[in-house]
Amino acid sequence: MRHILRFGGCGLALCVFAGTASGVIHTLSDRNSLVQIDDASQAGMFDWFVDGTDHMFQQWFWFRVGMSPEVSIDTLALTGTFIGDTNPFDDPASDTLSLRYSAPGFDIQPTWVLRGTTPGSARSDVTESITITNHENFDLSISFFQYSDFDLNGTSGGDTAVIPGLLHNTALQSEAGFTLSETVVAPVPSHYEVANFPSILTRLNDGLPDTLTDFAGPVFGDCTWAFQWDFVIPAGQSVVISKDKAITPAPGALALLGIGMLTLARRRR
Predict the structure, then answer these.
(1) With CB atoms 3.0 to 4.6 Å apart as the test, which of 54, 69, 106, 115 could cross-link to 125 if both were Cys?
(2) What pLDDT does 250 receive?
(3) Domain locations in the chain?
């Protein structure tokens, strides 16, 4: 039922940039890890298996131009696909994927690189970069969103999530012996939000221009979170968002709760 809610109710706004979709499920694998990405729906990155446990339900991207409603990038025309292997001698399997989505005047190119580790370690890493290029001869005002719903340990509930610190560029989530961390290397997000499902996803698909609330958490249960970047890209220029996410054995939800409470205390001062 959750899949129906997420991927079936995308709203009329999606028609604005609708393009040709390939509908391919791409599989990346490296040592103890496997990732699957749907290039033609909001499912996006929907599997991240580490030592046989799937910790991922949905991570995908939305954008808006100016103050138009945000839409998911799969509504654009998919004009380029590359899949390859960055370590063919050590682990001969596809572990990197680049997609290019194009609209009149600009394109968005996300790239993923999967790094597994020793089987049984419960550790895995995915680096991501998103390049947005303005092909026009005038500035492009664009907002870009990343939405994340991790189901750590294969379950949708029982998680703790927080976006701590002064920069709010790292999301932390924990449940049942696992911790997920995602750090935005650059640039620092303009806005961020932690919330229970389906609050953020509903607003991203409501046909209205939305801004994340800057609520850092902590949130408990079926946790989701998102980052937002607001750019003005000069004519003929590009911006690059660089991120890294890792699954590791957990310090536990109590540790994340402590970080979240410290963040809240600092905010209140």
Answers:
(1) 115
(2) 79
(3) 2-268
